[in-house]
Amino acid sequence: MIFSSLKLNKDEPIYIQVENHIKESIEKGMLQKGSKLPSTREVSSFLNISRNSVVVAYENLEIDGIIKSSRGKGTFVTIEASKPKNEFNIDWGTRINSYGSICESMDILKTELPWEKNMISFKSIAPEENLFDIEEFKRAFLDVISLEGNKILNYGYAKGYKPLLEYLMDYMKSKGINTEGKDILVTNGFTEGFDIIINTLTEPGDVIICENPTHNTAIKIMKAHGLDIIGVPMNEDGIDTKSLEKALENTSPKFAYIIPSYHNPTGIVMNGEKRQEVLNIFQKHSIPVIEDGFNEELLYTSSPVPSLASFCTDGNGVVYVGSLSKILFPGLRLGWMFGDRDLINTLESVKRARTIHSSFIDQGIFYHYMKSGAFDKYVKKVRKHYKDKYEFTLKQVNKHIPYESITGEGGLHIFIKLKGINAREVLQKCYEKGVVFTPGDIFYTDGGGEDTFRIGFSRVSEEDIEKGIKVIGEVINSIKNL
Amino acid sequence: MIFSSLKLNKDEPIYIQVENHIKESIEKGMLQKGSKLPSTREVSSFLNISRNSVVVAYENLEIDGIIKSSRGKGTFVTIEASKPKNEFNIDWGTRINSYGSICESMDILKTELPWEKNMISFKSIAPEENLFDIEEFKRAFLDVISLEGNKILNYGYAKGYKPLLEYLMDYMKSKGINTEGKDILVTNGFTEGFDIIINTLTEPGDVIICENPTHNTAIKIMKAHGLDIIGVPMNEDGIDTKSLEKALENTSPKFAYIIPSYHNPTGIVMNGEKRQEVLNIFQKHSIPVIEDGFNEELLYTSSPVPSLASFCTDGNGVVYVGSLSKILFPGLRLGWMFGDRDLINTLESVKRARTIHSSFIDQGIFYHYMKSGAFDKYVKKVRKHYKDKYEFTLKQVNKHIPYESITGEGGLHIFIKLKGINAREVLQKCYEKGVVFTPGDIFYTDGGGEDTFRIGFSRVSEEDIEKGIKVIGEVINSIKNL
């Protein structure tokens, strides 16, 4: 009520005080152009004054062109509030801490060459959205609304939507993982899950061990948190176990971060024997493992390769971070963390302190979509689709690009190493010809990889794959022949 | 391919090597019960051996009961993979850092008395979900799907869904705020917005100034980040400006955190004059202000009280954190930050490093819901609804509770101070009688407020409000008369 702050005095006529109060309120910005004034009846009752005083005040203000009454609608302020000019400036740039600066300087969307219209872009490893079955998505939406009603739109629980949690637990079990003593926390994708773990388990200066190269977002998060990254070189079958053993002799990392399937960026799938070996090494040194379940669902061999978590038949040494974002509905930003029940219990509180919980309507849709069998059907379809695209891309690369080595066993991308040619030089020239890809150096923990790059083919048509790879090959050959 | 790791030797018969490889793969957990084996044709072609060797190997394994062929379906493993028992244990409890421990120890869902079925609970200040117009929500969902198609389900942008960003910018402008040089970032509610700001602008040990009492989630986030909180006492019209001036003489806070409307927990609405005064004080000391726009939309006076941000007519000293979570669809977890363009640009990168972006389908639904006019209609409806409930609650409190003072001018809650009676003692006794509320001490930055409590009435029926308040009054009287 705009008159709450009016203290009436006995020296001036009441109507003048009411008039002045409204003028001052406008001047102070408390009443704005278009604001509706309370009715004369309301004001007289609120201030306990005669209604006539208010009527007179309003009439005078209307004559002055300050307010205007409109029959049946009310009385409105007609002049612009001329708030005192108030220039309150803060030099925000000097106030950003190192975390903020690193997040910004390592934000590849701001630092890398942008994709432009009509370009052929091999940058993305997001799924091809045309494969999404939107009718099934709509059905899942209507199912959850009809089942849960309005309450799905109110606050939920930090851990996640209960039917989804149960579904995911069964899903982990179906991967041959022992779920006893374990729990699940739904997160906003892998990124939030990994960031929550880092926030909860590390201090600046702590050491983390991972593959080199590795997922650039993980590198960004670790660097932003001031962590010391030890990247262990990879062979064609995954992390080099001898180098790993050696690295562990000299350091005590807080944990290991490993991507066993369709490793980003190399595309390598670690075989089961190697997974067991790698897990044994970490276990021997008591280094917990954060397993990135990235694209595991795309594995299209006849027998699934068990996750690292499944080799940990008893015990809680592995935390599995799952996400379907590279396959299904990444726009929903849903993922999950699976691990030791007490640890998840703490992470749940951390999640609550960061985002309260992930969108419950999205979790509901996701659950109904998965449960209905639409997901199984969809996975079968996209495995075939991406496998064909992978084989087509590989053929084009073999035909056009003079590489030193190539890795990637399927999934959504392949990784190419050139013979002593700088991939950023290639990229710059390709960019001028309308073709872009991801330079490999952003995936390296030690500034290496300048002769590598990643080709993401998931969203590129076969026609464009052929054209684009040809351009890349021509550029490389032109540099070689200089 | 399960045979990738098989290196054939020349000493043993091929079929024996194939047999042993499958047995070993099962033993090592690389083939699980139910796994499908590749066809004999695939194996012979992959290993470049005669198909007959594979057929013999498969037959022998079937005789041993290890695999089973099913005509037209394929060959499957029938025995349980007996993975080596592997007990890999980590003592996670000792690995949680102080951030994680504080998030957990200040998680009121874990530390406070739980709500139980059939209890009357005044704990929540979430909106009454039965007021949500679910048909409009469905319509908004179908609108966004039909307009955007599958691409709304793929990755989006960290800053937010563009039409929503534009809508929110106009919305800020309609509040009389100068939007020049400003930008908006969509967040997962107030909580993420505030946490992102803290993450980006502070270091442990930094000082933040705020009202005392204040929003308990904000206190939790600040403490978890190791910040030093200076809580300034409040009067019945908001923060005490003399105490504020004094506090600023002795400290240089990184920023101020202020809740001008329906302050949580006191329910006080700062009037416009006071807002101008408070802003002037911070400006004089060059202390930027984080304004929590909490429940501003519920202000049901005839003339809106302008936000702190609107008094900053020029300059970038105020960051406004908006959220509709206490009014509309909190389960979606959507909010926004409005402030200096360069600052938002950095915060956008931080957001990308934390959750990539907020759910795009949710942002799309939200935008279509707001734009259609459904929001305006809804706000009018709930203002009336909550105003009536507020007045009813107030009447019951005045009738039954012997308080020292009471604050709260509407909104979704009121705040009560008793005369030297411990609110936790009252709570314990009320709990035994099936009534719960929020003890006030959790909102205090300095351990005070032991004689205060918050009554959230938004989700309680009038019948239960009457019953519940009566119980609280009786308990207080019984303690007084001891």
TrEMBL record, chains A, B:
Keyword terms: DNA-binding, Pyridoxal phosphate, Transcription, Transcription regulation
Location of the HTH gntR-type domain: 12-80
Superkingdom of source: Bacteria
GO function terms (MF aspect): catalytic activity; DNA binding; DNA-binding transcription factor activity; pyridoxal phosphate binding
Q: Report the SUPFAM superfamilies cross-referenced here.
A: PLP-dependent transferases, Winged helix' DNA-binding domain
Query: What's one Pfam family the UniProt record gives for this protein?
Result: Aminotran_1_2
Question: Which SMART domains does the record match to this protein?
Answer: HTH_GNTR (SM00345)
Which PANTHER family would you find in this protein's record? HTH-TYPE TRANSCRIPTIONAL REGULATORY PROTEIN GABR
Q: Which family does it belong to?
A: In the C-terminal section; belongs to the class-I pyridoxal-phosphate-dependent aminotransferase family.
Q: Please give the name of this protein.
A: GntR family transcriptional regulator
Q: Which organism is it from?
A: Clostridium intestinale URNW
